[in-house]
Amino acid sequence: MAKEVVIIGGGIGGIYVLRNLLAKKGEVKEGMHLTLIKREKSGWVSVCGLPYALRGWYEIDRTEINKPQFFLDQGVDFRTETEVVQISVEESMVTLDTSEVLRYDYLVIATGRKPSVPAVVGEAKLEGVYTFNNEDDARKIEAAMNAEGVKNAFVRGRGINGLQAAVAFATKGLQTTLLGGPPSLLPSCLDPDMGDMLKEWLEKQGIRFILERKLLTALKGDGGRLKSVVVGDEEIPADIAVIAVGADPNTELASNAGIDTGEYGGIVTDKGMHVQRSGCSINNVCALGDCVEVIDGVTHCSRLSQYASTVVVQAKVIADNILGEVTARPGLYASYEPCISPSVADIGGLLVGSVGVTSEAAAMAGIKTVSGKATKLTKARYFPGAKPLTLKLIFDAYTTKLIGAQMVGESTVAERVNELAVAIYAGITAKELRNMERCYDPSLSLLIDVTIDAAELALGITPVY
Predict the structure, then answer these.
(1) Angle, CA of 116, 118 and 120, to the nearest 5°
(2) 354, 362 in Cβ contact below 8 A?
(3) For 85-98, how does the pLDDT look when each residue is reduced to its tens digit (9 = 90+)?
(4) Pairing status of strand 293-295 against strand 77-79
(5) How many Å from the N-terminal Cα to the C-terminal Cα in the chain?
(6) What residues contact residue 287 under an 8 Å CB cut-off, 6+ apart?
(7) What percent of the chain is predicted at pLDDT more than 90?
(8) CA 459 from chain center: how many Å?
(9) HSE value, Cβ hemisphere, 13 Å, CA-based, for 106
(10) Exposed, middle or buried: residue 194 (CB in 10 Å: 0-12, 13-18, 19+)?
(11) For 376-399, how does the pLDDT look when each residue is reduced to its tens digit (9 = 90+)?
């Protein structure tokens, strides 16, 4: 009898498990039947591409990489606009909102995240107020920002989604105000000195920032539509508002089934991404993505890692383990190791990247650090297109091993994030980074790269310019 695999959720987590299983489906002698259930109408949507659609780089429709029919044609029971309302771990079955019951041999939970919304927003119940979490949100925001008479925009939140929404509004010519909090932007990725560089860049694009300990105390409307917001004792005109103060793991379905969740609200899994119940692993139920907690590769503490770079690795682990079971090939089994969450984004034309821990996160984990920060061009000064890049490296003060990296610039950021991620995994020290040979061509790089200078400064050595 064919093995039944049911996947709950059609975001990047569910889709990548599905893709990995489809690629090996022919190796399963008794057959494997795949069912994916998602609430949305679309197929596979690149949520990470939505902010750039709002900036006018392309249409939102282009972020749908594969339509549902693409998966249906491959024999997948790809169900859209459908929701699982109950999981029975004891009976290995799920119940749908249509009252249909599906049996599974393997269940994958990829329910993602849900936006955190302040009570004052829910109480206002005004048109023109949105979250920014998925394709439907993006379409609503796009329609609202292009509506006649919209002149003022407000954003609550200083994370990537909030900043990307603010950039989209500013690009459209709207007077944009962003309410965050002290001390600076992207605190989960950047130290304040690096976040301030991003703030200065965006201020030049006309975005006003309120990074003080002030609360969003009221939303005021006229005829059911937003007209202004009140921050502290200041009333700010606002025809449109995006609330992006964070996202909580969407774990209600799992919790109701008795599946364990951790201190950050995410599902607890073992190294094979199997969920746990009362501390014991359930070998035929896995979870991944924004709804699970991970172990940090530096602090070794539990946390969330709601990045696409995290979930695609988790998807490989889950698919390998399911295939290992159904094909009886133990060599396929995989484990998910502690993660360091490499990230990169284009925010208003400035590239921002990070990997590992910030100085604050290290301090909270009791790790004493030393750091070095340097700014240099990415290629020889006489070559057209040479742009400055600022790099900050954070090292364990006792071992001098690299534990974090942050950078802002207009080029070569993504590749540096990946390089320094490898360095963190390998336990490279500041001295080893300083003395490491690096490629050189004046049209592509400097003979003495900014990485060398940052490592030397962390070691207390004055770089030779």
Answers:
(1) 155
(2) no
(3) 999 999 999 999 99
(4) unpaired
(5) 69
(6) 108, 109, 110, 254, 259, 267, 269, 273, 275
(7) 91
(8) 32
(9) 25
(10) buried
(11) 999 999 999 899 999 999 999 999
The two three-digit tokens of residue 245, written as one number: 């103060």
State how beta strands 84-88 and 77-79 pair: unpaired
Q: How far apart are CA 408 and CA 450, in angstroms?
A: 12
In DSSP notation, 200-265 reads: HHHHTTTEEEE-SS--EEEEEEETTEEEEEEETTEEEE-SEEEE-S-EEE--HHHHHTT--B-TTS
Strands 44-45, 64-66: pairing is antiparallel
Task: Enter the DSSP assignment of 462.
Answer: P
Q: What is the pLDDT of residues 179-201, one digit of tens each?
A: 999 999 999 999 999 999 999 99
> Mean pLDDT of all residues in the chain?
95
Take residue 449 and report the two structure tokens written for it: 């790269």
CA distances for 254 relative to 249, 266, 299, angstroms: 11, 10, 27
Q: Look at the alpha carbons of 247, 249, 253, 258 in this order and tell me if their dihedral is positive or negative.
A: negative
Q: What are 411's two structure tokens?
A: 């080029």
The closest alpha carbon to 159, from 198, 203, 214, belongs to 198
3-class secondary structure per residue, 38-99: CCCCCCEECHHHHHHHHCCCCCHHHHEEECHHHHHCCCCEEECCCCEEEEECCCCEEEECCC
- DSSP state, 460? T
Domains along the chain with CATH numbers: 3-114+248-332 (3.50.50.60), 117-245 (3.50.50.60), 343-458 (3.30.390.30)
236: closest CA among 224, 225, 226, 223? 226
Whether this model's pTM surpasses 0.85: yes
E strand or H helix that includes residue 114 = strand 113-115
Angle at 91 between CA 89 and CA 96, to 5 degrees: 80
**How much is the pLDDT for 123?**
77
> What DSSP assignment string belongs to 339-408?
B---EEEEETTEEEEEEE--HHHHHHTT--EEEEEEEEESS-TTSTT--EEEEEEEEETTT-BEEEEEEE
Residue matched to tokens 């990997």: 355
